[in-house]
Amino acid sequence: MLDPVGQLSPLQQRLLRELDLCDLPVPEAGPESYAVRDLDTDEVRDVLPTLLWAGLVEQRDEDRGTLGLTATGAAALRSAECDEMAARLSAVVSFADTVARGAAPRSAGHALRRLAEGTWTLEQAEAHVTADGGA
Predict the structure, then answer these.
(1) How far, in Å, CA of 77 to CA of 20, rounded?
(2) CB 129 within 8 A of CB 98
(3) What is the DSSP secondary-structure string of 75-89?
């Protein structure tokens, strides 16, 4: 999919994910809505013009006091999530090659779980099985 802003930054993706769950007030009108989501309102204000310009987010209501995700924004979010999943699956496949070279099964299982969850990188998972005497 052609994304007008290119690759989404982690903050942009996080904001789109939150807007996918529900509409939010503009940062000036409801800073507490962002605080409970552990989002910095100043950072949100910085990325918001780009998201609005690209048509990924829209201001709703007569007073334009509510932000909502557009269909284009939802598509961009899904595309970014697909890219993340494809990268994670690629890392799991690469890790399988490491395991095939003789990693200890218990150590490999733990590392594989962390890698698949996205809590470890491929390098961290490989280092774990290598440190435990495999590979």
Answers:
(1) 9
(2) yes
(3) HHHHHHHHHHHHHHH
